UniProtKB/TrEMBL annotation:
Component of the anaphase promoting complex/cyclosome (APC/C), a cell cycle-regulated E3 ubiquitin ligase that controls progression through mitosis and the G1 phase of the cell cycle. The APC/C complex acts by mediating ubiquitination and subsequent degradation of target proteins: it mainly mediates the formation of 'Lys-11'-linked polyubiquitin chains and, to a lower extent, the formation of 'Lys-48'- and 'Lys-63'-linked polyubiquitin chains. The APC/C complex catalyzes assembly of branched 'Lys-11'-/'Lys-48'-linked branched ubiquitin chains on target proteins. This is Anaphase-promoting complex subunit 5. It comes from Nothoprocta pentlandii. The gene is Anapc5. Residues 30-167 form the Anaphase-promoting complex subunit 5 N-terminal domain. GO terms for biological process: anaphase-promoting complex-dependent catabolic process; cell division; positive regulation of mitotic metaphase/anaphase transition; protein K11-linked ubiquitination. GO terms for cellular component: anaphase-promoting complex; spindle.
Length: 749
């Protein structure tokens, strides 16, 4: 089919094989496929009221995508008609056969008869309807053809019909040569493969008309926004866009879709190239000037600079983004464009400018920009350590704007941000509630049937948090199911796939560390680093620490600490400080660990990171235990253990209960005999709880330590049978796991 269309010189856009620059100067032209549609409409008019109502409804629903979509082979068109009305499909085939096997005058007569559909007091087709406009376009396009172009169209129609007959001949021979089971299997395979052949279908049809191209671009842009899995793959879509641009290099919308497509695969060079071409073509074609008068040229320039700044910001090129942003602001100020200025202020990382932008956006009646400004302010203040209650009040105000103006996308973003804020503050229960709220919502946007409504970044973020929450509670099967759903909803080539890739790697890393398989955890570090360099370096240090390579881990953590302090990543700074303190414990430098822990505690309280503050207090309690003041350690444990048990991961709960048991045993040394027995029995009860938590996440090293501790306590209490049971379980784990020679009392986690 490709060779047929390339040889059609009846296409008014081609002269002697050279494509004119304005390929869409004429909105439509006649092709064999469109002639088949004309035959279908003619037969539908002849059938009239004889068609059953149900079949007529099916055909009416089929017509619009057939008229707007690209050309398809005859066998596919015939199959689509047969699914709606088999007798009509047979009539269309017979009519096309008579025309293809007849003479040229038969085709001429067919186009002459098309005008009859508009005649009479009650015409079959209204001139202004979708079908009427299509018929009129085809009649006009056919009347403009020269005799040689008409002949080439007739030849193309014959080839179009003959290719369908050849396919039917192959199918019939296959039916004769294959048995029934093989034929059924082949038919099932063809049915399964049919929806996937759209890429071949588009690529085999040569240049599209203006309406077909506009429909294709709007359809793909809508799918990229609402359901990326239904859109063409990045490589296939780029191939089609290159084909469109080959016939019309000045098609600005195709350049913009190419820009969006390159963003999916994080191709900074190609996306920048396409974005600049889009605005260049927009200015050259005068599209902006027509809609905006003399202001169109300047408007394109300032929005080009603004989009370029956003692009550089997305890829982390902040210096280039700032230069482009300054240019956009300068042009916007010269043109007194307040809307563009408010867009520019959204990119700045300044609370004062954002507050000013929110007020201006509300003044100029721009609720979308005002809400985006509030979201940015909330995010900045969350990182600055503002109270959660104030942030939620601000988000409540933005939610009022969303529901008032039906801003569906911003509603999703707001709920996803609430989920992330509760996670940042260590309130996993509240984060889980917000995640479930978003997942149970329906989008307010109207989308086509069969298109997922919620394949947006907000849903990817929420599902990733949900997977991590389940993994932290030991529900690894549920987390795997969520990640599997994420992989189906956001394939690896999609623009939001990096989110679930990172969470997947992190969950696998934690499982490997809990299981003591440090070589597997080390192999996962490279993947995490590729997706997030800071997380990768931190986890590399954790592996080195677990392998007792203390000096290497310390050097890596010190470098990471300096970098995180420079970029103001407070959450990671606190985590690094806790890891450095643990290195000091393992090296028996207990007094050096205390200032580090106090620094971490001050930061976590300053930035309202409650869960990290609780973890820091647990570490301080462990330091006091090591320094010989277990009573004081028990006192501060009661302050910190409640948030850990309410919102913490299962591993942290187990470590907290294990630490309580250690402090109880150490404090019982000075008790009276009866009180000592009660304290040891209470410690055994806490160890049983810790053992349950560790078993849930398959943390064998911690289980081994708990069993050893329990065996010692049972021995002290004279419970021989229980002691022997714990000793046997300890021996099994001890033989399975390597011993690193670290004293039991010197390990909190």
């Amino acid at each position: 089919m490709a060779s047929v269309h390339e040889s059609l010189y009846f296409n008014p856009m081609m002269t002697n094989g050279v494509v004119h620059a304005n390929v869409f100067g004429i909105k439509d032209w006649v092709t064999p496929y469109k002639m088949s549609l004309l035959v279908l409409l003619s037969e539908l008019g002849r059938a009239g009221a004889q068609l059953p109502l149900l079949e007529r409804r099916r055909l009416n629903r089929l017509l619009l995508p057939l008229l707007q979509g690209p050309d398809v082979p005859l066998w596919r068109l015939r199959r689509a008609i047969e699914e709606c009305c088999p007798p009509l499909a047979a009539s269309v085939t017979v009519r096309l056969k008579l025309m293809a096997e007849g003479e040229l005058k038969d085709m001429e007569q067919f186009f002459d008869d098309l005008s009859d559909a508009f005649t009479g007091t009650e015409p079959e087709v209204h001139k202004t309807s979708v079908v009427g406009l299509f018929l009129r376009h085809m009649i006009l396009a056919y009347n403009k053809l020269s005799f040689s172009q008409v002949y080439k169209l007739y030849t193309a129609l014959q080839q179009y019909f003959q290719s369908d007959e050849k396919k039917d001949g192959i199918d019939e021979s296959d039916m004769e040569l294959t048995n029934t089971e093989e034929l059924e299997g082949r038919m099932e395979k063809e049915e399964l493969d049919a929806p996937l052949s759209r890429e071949e279908e588009i690529s085999c049809n040569g240049p599209l008309s203006q309406k077909q191209a506009e429909y294709f671009l709007s359809q793909q842009a809508s799918l990229l926004k609402n359901d990326e899995t239904k859109a063409l793959a990045p490589a296939s879509l780029q191939k089609e866009l290159n084909n469109l641009l080959k016939f019309n290099p000045d098609f600005a919308e195709a350049h913009y879709l190419s820009y969006l497509n390159n963003l999916r695969v994080q191709d900074v060079f190609s996306s920048t190239h396409s974005l600049l071409h889009y605005f260049d073509r927009l200015i050259l074609t005068g599209a902006e000037s027509k809609s905006n008068g003399d202001e169109g040229y300047g408007r394109s320039l300032r929005y080009a600079a603004l989009n370029l700044a956003a692009l550089h910001c997305r890829f982390g090129h902040y210096q280039q983004a700032e230069l482009a942003l300054q240019e956009a602001i300068r042009i916007a100020q010269e043109s007194n464009d307040h809307v563009c200025l408010q867009h520019c202020l959204k990119i700045f990382d300044s609370c004062v400018l954002l507050e000013h932008s929110v007020n201006k956006s509300l003044h100029f009646g721009l609720p979308y920009l005002a809400s985006l400004g509030i979201q940015s302010l909330v995010q900045q203040r969350a990182f600055a350590g503002k109270a959660a209650s104030k942030l939620m009040d601000a988000l409540k105000d933005s939610d009022l704007l969303h529901w008032k103006h039906s801003l569906s996308e911003l509603i999703d973003i707001s709920i996803a941000q609430k989920t992330a804020i509760w996670r940042l503050y260590g309130r996993s229960t509240m984060a889980l509630q917000q995640a479930q709220t978003l997942l149970s919502m329906n989008s307010l946007e109207a989308v086509n049937v069969g298109v997922q409504q919620n394949n947006t970044e907000s849903f990817a973020v929420v599902l990733c948090h949900l997977a991590q929450l389940h993994a932290e509670q030991g529900y690894f099967a549920a987390a795997s199911e969520i990640l599997k759903h994420l992989k189906e909803r956001f394939p690896p080539h999609s623009q939001h796939a990096q989110l679930w890739m990172l969470f997947d790697q992190k969950i696998q890393f934690e499982r490997a560390m809990n299981d003591g398989r440090y070589h597997i955890a080390d192999s996962l570090v490279a993947g995490i680093t590729a997706l997030n360099s800071i997380e990768g370096v931190y986890r590399k240090a954790l592996v080195l620490k677990a392998q007792n390579q203390m000096s290497e881990a310390h050097k890596l953590l010190q470098k990471l600490l300096i970098h995180c302090q420079k970029i103001k990543n407070t959450e990671m700074v606190i985590s690094v400080l806790l890891s450095i303190a643990e290195l000091y414990w393992r090296s028996s430098c207990h007094t050096i660990a205390l200032p580090v822990l106090l620094q971490a505690l001050a930061l976590s309280r300053e930035y309202s990171l409650q869960y990290l503050a609780s973890q820091t207090v647990l570490n301080l309690a462990f330091s006091q235990l090591i320094l010989g003041i277990p009573e004081q350690a028990l006192n501060i444990l009661h302050m910190a253990i409640e948030p850990v048990l309410a919102h913490g991961a299962v591993l942290d709960k187990g470590c907290a209960m294990f630490l309580v048991a250690k402090c109880q045993v150490a404090s019982a040394a000075s008790y009276a005999p009866q009180e000592k027995v009660e304290a040891l029995e209470s410690a055994i009860s806490n160890l049983n709880e810790a053992k349950t938590y560790f078993a849930k996440v398959d943390c064998k090293e911690q289980l081994r330590d708990v069993l050893y501790f329990q065996a010692r306590l049972f021995h002290t209490l004279g419970k021989t049978q229980e002691r022997n049971k714990c000793a046997m379980l300890f021996r099994r784990l001890h033989q399975e796991l390597p011993a690193h020679g670290v004293p039991l009392i010197n390990a909190f986690k």
